[in-house]
Amino acid sequence: MSTEPTVITVGEGTGAGGQELGYSVVVGEGLLAQLPGLVGPQAERVLVIHPRALRATGDVVREDLEKAGYQAVTAEIPDAEEGKHIQVAAFCWQVLGQNDLTRSDAIVSVGGGAVTDVAGFVAATWLRGIRIVHMPTTLLGMVDAAVGGKTGINTAEGKNLVGSFHQPAGVLADLETLATLPRNELVAGLAEVVKCGFIADEEILRTVERSPEEVQRWDSAELRDLIERSIRVKAGVVGRDVRESGVRESLNYGHTLGHAIELAERYQWRHGAAISVGMVFAAELARSLGRLSDVEADRHREILTSLGLPTTYRDDRWNQLLEGIRRDKKNRGETLRFVLLNSIGSPATVEIPDPSILFATYQEIAEPASSTTISL
Ligand SMILES: NC(=O)c1ccc[n+]([C@@H]2O[C@H](COP(=O)([O-])OP(=O)(O)OC[C@H]3O[C@@H](n4cnc5c(N)ncnc54)[C@H](O)[C@@H]3O)[C@@H](O)[C@H]2O)c1
């Protein structure tokens, strides 16, 4: 495997105030030495935000920043969704205040998508916005959450309801951090990778088809290739649609039913497992609307199954799922909207005026509730 880091640029040009709009996502191994370059010479103090599970990594990052001449402190936050809470953000603001971080200082996030989201939100709001560098440590964080500038926290009413757009100064995706990632987290991240394949890069699908085992190994050349390709897909889309007004919707492929399943499962399913079922549903819908061929629709099921991702859902939850689908943010009034493929690599947002076709499609992915296995 190449040991040279790969640099992918997201966005480009300069803003009205002359500031650089683009940033780099660096993919490779042993990338810590590149962190000071992204934090920049203007910063004196740096806050490293990491989850409990990554205390050792957070400490290494802090020590490295200190060696580079920064005053660095850490803020340890709860793992996973527990971290995306207003009280966690308030704790981080408190640490920032107590350590006198100014507008020229910086935050570094070390962790999965949950940390990226809350740390990004803290960076967006502290002194109306300070610099942040993301160091994603999950596959999902690398290919999705750390790229694109969406930040957010949860409220009692739902996930990601509060947040802002705040682009990072750079992203370091160090593949070595994936060595400790539990297998189910890696596989869940692969669902987003496969999504990128379906909406924009068929070579991703071919690689998974050729090497379903290798792509699940953190140190394989195949996984690195998939990560780089997926980041390029996301970079290409968000670079054209920074505030999610149009083409960015294609990234929601599989997410309409996927979000409804997550809701129905009270977030006990991994996001990747839910969108895996959601992509098969979208493929079946496209098949019945005459948009996708049988071969292309079947390919969804085959690829996702080869990775151990679920492709069916219990048959006794349709009304609940439809309720979740109706809440989807893509909808306009009463009309339901889905991202569907016209062919591999060609997504479009399609209006579904009659929900009865959705129920018919659901029969294609439904299995008796009694035989449903717990996912991932
Ligand atoms: N902002 C965006 O554009 C965007 C996009 C996709 C997802 N998200 C958000 O990302 C979150 C999900 O992210 P995720 O799937 O990375 O999960 P996560 O951040 O919840 O991490 C999963 C678990 O793995 C642990 N972990 C992280 N890295 C590890 C490592 N290297 N070794 C061992 N354990 C490790 C974490 O502490 C956590 O317990 C959701 O909150 C979702 O809303 C945001």
From TrEMBL:
| 3-dehydroquinate synthase N-terminal domain boundaries | 76-186
Q: Which reaction does it catalyse?
A: 7-phospho-2-dehydro-3-deoxy-D-arabino-heptonate = 3-dehydroquinate + phosphate
What InterPro entries does the entry give?
Dehydroquinate_synthase, DHQ_synth_AroB, DHQ_synth_fam, DHQS/DOIS_N, DHQS_C
Ordered alphabetically, the record's keywords are: Amino-acid biosynthesis, Aromatic amino acid biosynthesis, Cobalt, Cytoplasm, Lyase, Metal-binding, NAD, Nucleotide-binding, Zinc
Chain ranges of the 3-dehydroquinate synthase C-terminal domain: 189-331
Gene3D superfamilies reported for this sequence: 3.40.50.1970, Dehydroquinate synthase-like - alpha domain (1.20.1090.10)
Q: Which pathway is recorded for this entry?
A: Metabolic intermediate biosynthesis; chorismate biosynthesis; chorismate from D-erythrose 4-phosphate and phosphoenolpyruvate: step 2/7
Does the keyword field hold DNA-binding?
A: no
Primary localization: cytoplasm
SUPFAM superfamilies attached to this UniProt entry: Dehydroquinate synthase-like
One GO biological process this protein is involved in is: amino acid biosynthetic process
Q: Which Pfam families match?
A: DHQ_synthase, DHQS_C
| GO molecular function term, any single one | nucleotide binding
UniProt binding sites for NAD(+): 79-84, 113-117, 137-138, 150, 159, 177-180
Q: How is the cofactor bound?
A: Binds 1 divalent metal cation per subunit. Can use either Co(2+) or Zn(2+).
Residues that, per the record, bind Zn(2+): 192, 255, 271
One GO CC term on file:
cytoplasm
Enzyme Commission identifier(s): 4.2.3.4
What's this protein's function?
Catalyzes the conversion of 3-deoxy-D-arabino-heptulosonate 7-phosphate (DAHP) to dehydroquinate (DHQ).
Which protein family is named in the record? Belongs to the sugar phosphate cyclases superfamily. Dehydroquinate synthase family.
Which named protein is this?
Answer: 3-dehydroquinate synthase
